Amino acid sequence: MTEKELFLKVAERVKELRTEKGMSQQELAGLIDFEKSNMSRFEAGGTNPTIATLYKIAQALDVTLSELLMIE
Amino acid sequence: MTEKELFLKVAERVKELRTEKGMSQQELAGLIDFEKSNMSRFEAGGTNPTIATLYKIAQALDVTLSELLMIE
């Protein structure tokens, strides 16, 4: 998988978990101290997130990092 | 878990998988195009790796990202 595909798969997984919980992009952005614009760029697969950011997202979505990254 | 603990847990997990495969730090660094010094700083828990770096490490260690990040 290319880096571009990787970023997109991570983004789609976050969106899947977020919508399953009935959470808006704005709410998730607020929980992890993200600007709304950053959140939408992230969910468009346009960023290369760090483990620290992914951990905050996993906590906000109440899943483990391992569950968050079940993308293969 | 604090960010420091997170970086350390990820580092310990990579070291655990690397040594299980009988791979040296130098060999892993070579496989993912890392300087040896970066690899040792990473395994000391001193860095906040991106998903792109973690994916390269997972591939080099022949595990999925989800398996790599089973740290909770």
Automatic annotation (TrEMBL), chains A, B:
High-level lineage: Bacteria, Pseudomonadati, Bacteroidota, Chitinophagia, Chitinophagales
Domain HTH cro/C1-type as annotated: residue spans: 14-68
Positions of transmembrane segments: none
Protein's name in the database: HTH cro/C1-type domain-containing protein
Keywords: DNA-binding, Transcription, Transcription regulation
PROSITE patterns recorded: HTH_CROC1
Keyword DNA-binding: yes
Presence of keyword DNA damage: no
Organism encoding this protein: Nemorincola caseinilytica
Domain of life: Bacteria
